[in-house]
Each structure stands twice: as structure tokens, then as C-alpha cells.
Amino acid sequence: MQLRARGVSDARLLSAIERVPRRLFLAARQHVLAYVDTQLPIECGQSISAPSTIATMLEHLKVGARDSVLEIGTGSGYQAALLSHLAARVVTLERYRTLVELARQRLATLRMDSVQVELADGLLGWAKEAPFGRIIVTGSVEAIPEALKAQLDPDGGVLIAPVGVPGQPQKLTRVVRSGDDFAQTEVAPVRFVPMVAGIAARL
Ligand code: SAH
């Protein structure tokens, strides 16, 4: 209801949000805040975005029931769980082994078999299962990585990413691919933690 009041109107998205218990993606001490519209800390010093931020990203991604989606930055796995209700298949990449394992456990508990969680540097994408109809980047980048553009479906693939300099407000940017043409538009101001290259050496 809070998201509806904030202008989120996509019925499939609202239904996915209703069906995924956000609490299951948080440590016990955060459970009282699970349904407050706020960003919260998770393991490995990372965070789970506010539901309204996730809703904005997913509304602009316009995921169809037959799409295959690549998510960069699994974090808690919450957004991947939402995507599993919206898409046919989801591959999600995370640079912290601990987060990969936790997300796999949570998604298995919910029997979300259409989500594949991989330990990988997401800035390089997941070439072995490309192309993807939709790609979503959940941390900021200074420019859209060429590797991700190359893995976008040439026939109308959509990528969404926060673009800008770390520490400054960024522009949520939407890229629509048509063959060799990549049409880029800025859709909303956002503030995300930057993506970091490479797999984490610890945790
Ligand atoms: N979508 C998440 C929130 C993501 S926060 C959720 O629903 O909880 C951003 C995540 O991106 C963090 O977990 C961070 O570790 C991860 N990340 C940062 N750089 C990355 C990279 N190069 N490859 C893969 N994951 C990365």
C-alpha cells in the first residue's frame, strides 16, 4: 500500500512484492524494519535497497514473463526473488562468496528454481548464457560496461543502471538495444553505492 501511494502502479510488480517476504532476506535484528521503506544493512558491509528504489528500477526495466534477466549485484537476493516472479529465468552475479551462499539458501527455501546465483565479477557479465532480454545493475557505474552492452539482446533488449561518479547523485539510465544501436535515456535521479571490480578476496 505504501508503494501504491508512492505511485507504483504496475500490477505484476506489486503482486511480486506482495508475494516475497522481505524479512527472509534480512538478519533477525533487522526484522522489525523489514516492511519499512528504507535501505537496510546486510552481510559483508553491503545493503538491501529501499523497496521504493527497487520498484522504480523494476518499473523502468519492464520485465516480461518470457524474458531472461541478468542481475549484477545479488546482495541479499531479494530483488532476484522479485524478478523470479516477473521473468522466465534469472541469472544473478555477486562478488562476495558469503552473499552468494546466503542468497542461494534463501531462494531455495522459497523454491525459486528459476534463479541461478553465481560468484563472479558482474562488470564482465555472464557471457556463457548471453544474450539477456533484460540486464539490471544494482550499484553505480561511471559508464555502462561494454561487456554488458554486448550481452544485451539485439532485438529490443533493455538495460538499467545508475550512472555517475561515486559519492555524487547518479542518473538511473535506461539503454534499449536495437542491433548495433544503443538508445540511452536518463529516467530518474538515484544514489547507489558503486560497483567494485573483481571477486572479493575475503568473505
Ligand atoms: N539487489 C540487492 C542489493 C544490491 S547492493 C538486493 O536486493 O539486496 C549491490 C551489490 O552488488 C552488493 O552486494 C555488492 O557486493 C555487489 N557488487 C558490487 N560490485 C560487484 C561486481 N563487480 N560484481 C558482482 N557484484 C557486485
Features:
203 residues, alpha/beta, Rossmann fold, seven-stranded mixed β-sheet, 25% helix, binds S-adenosyl-L-homocysteine
Global outline: globular
- How do the SSEs run, as a string of H and E? HHEEHEHEHEEHEEE
| Helix/sheet category | alpha/beta
Tell me the CATH superfamily. Answer: Vaccinia Virus protein VP39
Strand arrangement across the biggest beta sheet: 5-4-3-6-7-8-9
Q: Which oligomerization state do the chains in this entry correspond to? A: single chain
Whole-number total of structural domains: 1
* Tally of helical runs: 6
Calculate the mean pLDDT score and round it.
Answer: 96
User: Strand-residue fraction?
Assistant: 25-35%
- Radius of gyration from the alpha-carbon trace, in angstroms: 16 Å
Question: Cofactors and ligands present?
Answer: S-adenosyl-L-homocysteine
End-to-end Cα distance, whole Å, is 37 Å
Largest sheet: 7 strands, mixed
Uncertain spans, ≥5 residues at pLDDT below 50?
A: none
Give the CATH topology: Rossmann fold
Give the C-level CATH assignment: Alpha Beta
Helix content: 25-40%
Tally of strands: 9
